[in-house]
Design goal:
A hairpin with a 7-residue loop joins β8 and β9. The strands form two sheets. The protein has a five-stranded parallel β-sheet with strand order 3-2-4-1-5, with helices on both faces. A five-stranded mixed β-sheet has the order 6-7-10-8-9, with helices on both faces. The chain is about 25% helix and about 20% strand. The protein is an alpha/beta fold. About 40% of the residues are buried. It is globular, with a radius of gyration of 20 Å. It is built from eight helices and ten strands. InterPro entries: 4pyrrol_Mease (IPR000878), 4pyrrol_Methylase_sf (IPR035996), 4pyrrole_Mease_sub1 (IPR014777), 4pyrrole_Mease_sub2 (IPR014776), CobA/CysG_C (IPR006366), Siro_Cobalamin_biosynth (IPR050161), Uropor_MeTrfase_CS (IPR003043).
Length: about 270
């Protein structure tokens, strides 16, 4: 059920419905529908309209009832079907029509998901809202691959960062402020991976620091590509890694075991 993303939707007609609209900013998690929270599932099943991103997997979209209007608003690796301002306006317009609006976002709404901006727009328009948290891609990928983000012998901290630079900046500031005792998880960093690796090495990280690139985490299409900071750029090109993918950087990557997920699924297959 991989429906096309088409944002050519008319705004809802003004409603005489006295019921006040409500907005739920819902985290869809990393992709596996079994990792969706119970509250998220309940909101999907009772929504009047769901506005979703590309990163929401077809398996999760299949849980939306057929009667519910679905609107794809895009957003994948800087290619947006609608600009953020138009998404905000669409959310508010459906709330004004007295509808139960679900804004469905991959991962967690408040972690690199621009949920904070959408919340501000809903509040400014005077509507009630709630935030339903989701499992973020970093913890989903860590659990699925068996790579712990912290470990007593490898990492005493973990830093979640974005690979996007602000317009006009030629370097990501966070690359200067990390050390070998930290795990780095880079969201939206695939296109910038060669530059990220070079900046980290320039900032003092060892060139042989392990890196795992996790593609389509927690889904049947999950793939893990291993490299070091020194070999990352060439490896990603050779393996043709595509979004959605995130980078896990640090000594904890040495704990990765390729058979981890398959072994677990075999154990519980007959349960």
């Amino acid at each position: 059920m991989n429906e096309p993303c088409d944002s050519r939707h008319l705004l809802p007609a003004a409603s005489a419905n006295p019921v006040r609209g409500h907005v739920s900013l819902v985290g869809a998690g990393p992709g596996d529908p079994e990792l969706l929270t119970l509250r998220a599932l309940q909101r999907l099943q009772t929504a009047d309209v769901v506005l979703y991103d590309h990163l929401v997997s077809p398996a999760i979209r299949a849980l939306i009832p057929a009667r519910t209007e679905r609107i794809c608003v895009g957003k994948r690796a800087s290619r947006h079907t609608l600009p953020q301002e138009a998404i905000n306006a669409l959310i508010v317009s459906h709330a004004r029509a007295g509808r139960r609006v679900v804004r469905l976002k991959g991962g967690d709404p408040f972690l690199f998901g621009r949920g904070g901006e959408e919340m501000e727009e809903v509040v400014a328009a005077g509507f009630d809202y709630e935030v339903v948290p989701g499992i973020t891609a970093a913890t989903g990928a860590a659990a699925s691959t068996g790579i712990p983000l912290t470990h007593r012998d490898h990492a005493q901290g973990c830093l979640f960062v974005t690979g996007h630079r602000r317009q006009g900046e030629d370097r990501l500031a966070w690359t200067r402020h990390t050390g070998p005792e930290e795990t780095l998880v880079v969201y939206m960093g695939l296109n910038e991976a060669p530059r990220i690796a070079a900046d980290l090495i320039d900032a003092g990280r060892a060139p042989d620091t392990p890196v795992a690139t996790v593609e389509n985490a927690t889904t049947p299409r999950e793939r893990v590509v291993l490299a070091t900071l020194a070999t990352l750029a060439a490896t990603l090109e050779q393996e043709a890694v595509a979004s959605p993918a995130l980078l896990i950087i640090g000594s904890v990557v040495r704990l990765y075991r390729p058979a981890h997920r398959a072994a677990v699924e075999e154990v519980f297959a007959g349960a």
